[in-house]
Amino acid sequence: MSLLELRKLNKHFGGLHVTNGVNLTLEPGEIHCLIGPNGAGKSTLFRLILGEHHPGSGDILFAGENITALKSFARIHRGLSVKFQVPGVFKGLSVRQNLEIALQSRHRGAELDAEIGRLLAFLGLEAEQAQTAGNLSHGQKQWLEIGMAISLKPRLLLLDEPTAGMSPEETHMTGEMVQRLNADGMTVLAIEHDMAFVRQVARRVTVLHLGQVFAQGSIDEIVADERVAAIYLGQAHA
Amino acid sequence: MNSFLSLFRRLEGPQTVGRGPAFWGAFAIVLLAALAYPLFSDGYTVGNTVYFFVWVFIALSLCLIWGYGGSLSFGQTAFFGIAGYGYGILTINFGSAYGFTLLALVLAVMIAALFAVLLGYFMFFGRIAGVFLGIVTLAVTLMLERFMAQTAGPEWHVGAARLNGFNGMSAMPPLTIPWPGEPIVLFADVGLYYLVLGLLVLVYLGLRILMNSSFGNVIVAIRENPERAEMLGYDVRKYQLITFVIGAALAGLSGVLYTVWGQYITPSSMGMTAAALPLIWVAVGGRSDLTSTVIGTLIVLAAFQALTIYGSQYALVFMGVLLVLTVLIAPNGLVLGVMNWLGRFASRFLQRAG
């Protein structure tokens, strides 16, 4: 059984058809990257999967269950988790408290402290744990939010541009982390522009364009596809 | 036993200023002074202090909903008024025998909370947030004020209780504790003082525990970033509603105690001025901290009363100026600013000494 299945998803914003009959299937254990030019509808697709937007038509199946009508928090309980494009940390709270809020519904007391400690070490944020999250560097905020997202031990992790604003080294480290998480059984769907990252982690790549699935395949197939190169250069209508 | 101990640990935490022996020592001294104070004062002054204490509950309710929860409610006075009128209607009809006034206190607070469940459900589950929440809650309290103000005619009554329009309802019995022999009547001096002080300490410590618990964590998380909180699996609307209802109950408690204190309640207690003043107390004190809210409210109330005696309506102008100054100088609150400064000073001092 596939882990996530999108069936003919449609979403309109006024006259704009942002998601146009999207079919997408994710197998358990894969790392799947979603690419496409700006305005292709990648983030909207994420919001549909997460329940922040509701599709005009179509179905979303998660582990065989139709979750199209579920509220966001209920989808999280089913095993979804997300890191947003703009780092969504609790800016006014300490790094430690950010992680505590993410972990507290699964762990209590001394166990909670131990889990927070483990996650701080994993993220390399031990020295910053008492700092206010708003004072972290951009990269550190990204890491903190990834930490919060994975602390839920999701079955499917959605990453919206996980390496935006990161140096090449940080990008590579993030890629390694994603691979480690995947080795532990986490399925990953990532929106990413950084092709080095995509090449590092992705087994399958889906190209979105004007709200539609434009192409799908391995990274080599996608890179070799002249039509894909053309839409990135803005020649799709030519 | 273990869970009892963990409750005590939650008295301190990231959501509340003040920790360690220095803070709790000061707390004990203030509490002892408050307990001993009626022995050295007269009935009138003690009654006046009760009046100040009564308002602290509504301030704490706003601190909870606005300061911690991030939802600016402009209409805490609606719950204040509902509970106040509720207590009046109940006790005028059923009297004060068999300790009914105490039951009426609880019932009136519950009525206010129930109203908050209804209003809050439509607001939070209708995803009304930000400034619109303020507008809706303000509209509700002003509507209640207008409604009660036009109930002057004799046809407006609930049982024996006349609503009395703008003049308000009066002559409800004070809180009465049943006692073998003669019941103890808590008039607005020493008797009521100890009851209100007890409630205040209870509510203050209870809120400290609540805000430093996992529930409090979620509340501040929603203030910081509701989307992120939802995406960690929390039903944001549910948490907001619960916070709103707890806040409404506290505002209601304020209203009942006010009604009991003066044995009257008028529509103007739900009016524009009444709705705006708690915002100023809480903003000046420091809305994101319970202790700052309590201290700030008491200081501003005392200053306001002193000004009213000498300057009448100018006191309100002063309140406005105070709010503007706070927003400009210390947006997080003047008292909170001073307390944080004291905390830093103390820790630096201890470092140097150690």
Q: What would you say this structure looks like, in words?
A:
- The complex is a heterodimer of chains A (238) and B (354).
- Chain A contains nine helices and ten strands.
- Chain A has 238 residues and is α/β, with parallel strands linked by helices.
- Chain A folds into two domains: 183 residues, P-loop containing nucleotide triphosphate hydrolases (Rossmann fold); 46 residues, no CATH class.
- In chain A, the strands form two sheets. Chain A has a six-stranded mixed beta sheet, sandwiched between helices. Chain A has a four-stranded antiparallel beta sheet with strand order 2-1-4-5, with helices on one face.
- In chain A, a hairpin with a 2-residue loop joins β4 and β5.
- The radius of gyration of chain A is 18 Å and the shape is globular.
- In chain A, 45% of the residues are buried.
- The model of chain A has no long low-confidence stretch (mean pLDDT 91).
- Chain B has 354 residues and is mainly alpha-helical.
- Chain B has one domain: ABC transporter involved in vitamin B12 uptake, BtuC (Orthogonal Bundle), CATH 1.10.3470.
- Chain B is built from 14 helices and six strands.
- In chain B, strands 1-2 form a two-stranded antiparallel ribbon.
- The radius of gyration of chain B is 21 Å and the shape is globular.
- The mean pLDDT of chain B is 93.
- Chain A: Keywords: ATP-binding, Nucleotide-binding, Transport.
- Chain A: It comes from Bradyrhizobium campsiandrae.
- Chain A: One of its GO terms (molecular function) is ATP binding.
